[in-house]
Amino acid sequence: MFKLKKYTKINLTYAWFALIVLSTLNILNYADRSIFNALMDPIKGQFKFSDLQLGILASAFLWVYAIAAYPLARLADRGIRKGVLVAGVIIWSVATFGTGFSNSFGELFAARAILGIGEASYATTLAPLISDYFPASLRSTALGVANAPLGIGTALGYYIGGKSTEGFGWRHAFFYLGIPGLILGIIAMFLREPVMGLSDRASPEKETQKIPALKAIREILSRKTLLYLWGSSILLTFSIGGMLVWMAALLHRDYGFSVADAAIQGANAAVIGSILGVLIGGALADYWNRTSINAHIWVVMIGYALSGVFVFGLFAARTHPLALGCIGAVAFFQMATNGPILAAMMNVTAPHLRSTCNAIYLFLIHVLGDAPSPTIIGFLSKQMGDLKRALFFMPWITVLSAVVAAGALYTYAKEKKEMLGNL
Fold it and tell me: For the segment 276-304, what is each residue's pLDDT rounded down to a tens digit?
């Protein structure tokens, strides 16, 4: 089923069609993972879970997601990227549907873990595929569009979760999100697989070469730009990712929103900011790149720094509109960096190693970032008896992420030229 004719010449009409299909799938990707966060308090009420248990369930998905990413990426880098992606869509859709049948902590944990396997398959292959559908000059823009669904999908998950508490119950929310993924997964089977390295004019020999795992890791880790970007992203993901998990609960407990309003209004603010951020950030980086080779790095640095500023603003907010405005601003500046940072990573990595590079990135930002942070926040909240106090160190970590990203200014230009020279 995956032996369709390959995409061997860049065709922007087909590239945009493929991007629409993949971006629509990405909406479900983020909706399926975020709906649990919107329903944490109702699930807690039914099963009498502690905040620590809720944090563990939130982290279960991310731990498995991070660990599964590397072996799946190695499989994808051997030339079957689309097959890995489609299999992931089917697995995560089945896991989402099955979550609605869970009746214990163990069953919820298992469903969240399986969801992690499916979504890791998708995440490791998405950026490398899009990098080859589009010319390098549009890479940041295309990756920004592909990641706009982070905000849309997250908002959809929170919206459906919030509505479920008003009528049909939290279990049905998982049922309604599971089915569309199976349908779209079938459509994705018929996308044409782009030749690996097409947009960078890699030679056919480079496309098919198989590199031993340890040699591949050494080659990737030799790029200092990646180390700076990964380090900054770990810090940002720890802070913003942890806050995202607890956002609905924070608005409900500390700002006086109802459970439904916390999920829906918080999601509305985040989705508006996210969509504007990814579209503007990616396009800005590609435009700025015409005159500054470090444009992608500058967008990442500025976005991370301003995200931290508005997290401080959230904690200082005293009214509902101001709190929601700060959430929207954090989403805008954080998501404005999504396309540029992925483009920068792809730009310094050889085409036949991009899925592996992306997998290492995902492993690190989740294992050291938003996998442990929800549990740590839950533990601190339980000890302090105050969720807002447990979150107060997050803005400082967010600002620090911008400082770490600055290191890439000294390495990116040289390593980007080296990568192109080796093709």
Answer: 998 899 889 989 998 999 999 999 999 99
In a domain, 2, yes or no: no
What pLDDT does 48 receive? 86
End-to-end Cα spacing for the chain:
31
Question: Could you tell me which residue, 123 or 325, shows the higher pLDDT?
Answer: 325
pLDDT at residue 354 in the model = 86
Q: Is 3 a domain residue?
A: no
Q: Residue 7: beta bridge partners?
A: 194
Distances 404 to 101, 163, 230 between C-alpha atoms, Å: 44, 40, 9
Share of the chain above pLDDT 90, in %: 25
Is the pLDDT at 376 greater than 50? The verdict is yes
Length of the chain equals 423
Cβ partners under 8 Å of residue 401, min gap 6? 232, 233, 234, 235, 236, 239, 304, 308
SS3 176: helix
Q: What's the domain count of the chain? A: 1
> Which CATH number do you get for residue 184?
1.20.1250.20
Kind and range of the H or E run holding 412: helix 412-421
Q: How many C-alpha atoms does 356 have within 13 Å on its Cβ side? A: 22
Average pLDDT over residues 340-344: 92
- For 63-130, strand residue ranges (E) read none
Backbone angles phi, psi at 104, to 5 degrees: -160, 170
Question: What tokens does 342 get?
Answer: 């992925």
Radius of gyration of the chain, Cα coordinates, nearest whole angstrom: 20
User: Could you give the CA distance from residue 375 to residue 56 in angstroms, rounded to a whole number?
Assistant: 5
Q: Is residue 6 part of a domain?
A: no
Rounded CA-CA distance 124/355 in Å is 5
Q: Give the DSSP H or E segment for 101.
A: none
Q: What is the pLDDT of residue 16?
A: 92
Model confidence over 353-366: pLDDT tens digits? 888 888 899 889 88
Domain enclosing residue 95, as ranges: 12-421
Count of Cβ atoms closer than 10 Å to residue 292 Cβ: 12
Higher-pLDDT residue of 77 and 91 is 91
Contact 352, 197 (CB under 8 A): yes
Global pTM value = 0.75
List pLDDT tens digits, range 304-329. Answer: 999 999 988 888 888 888 989 999 99
Q: Is 258 part of a structural domain of the chain?
A: yes
Question: In this structure, what is the dihedral angle of CA atoms 125, 127, 129, 134, given to the nearest 10 degrees?
Answer: 180
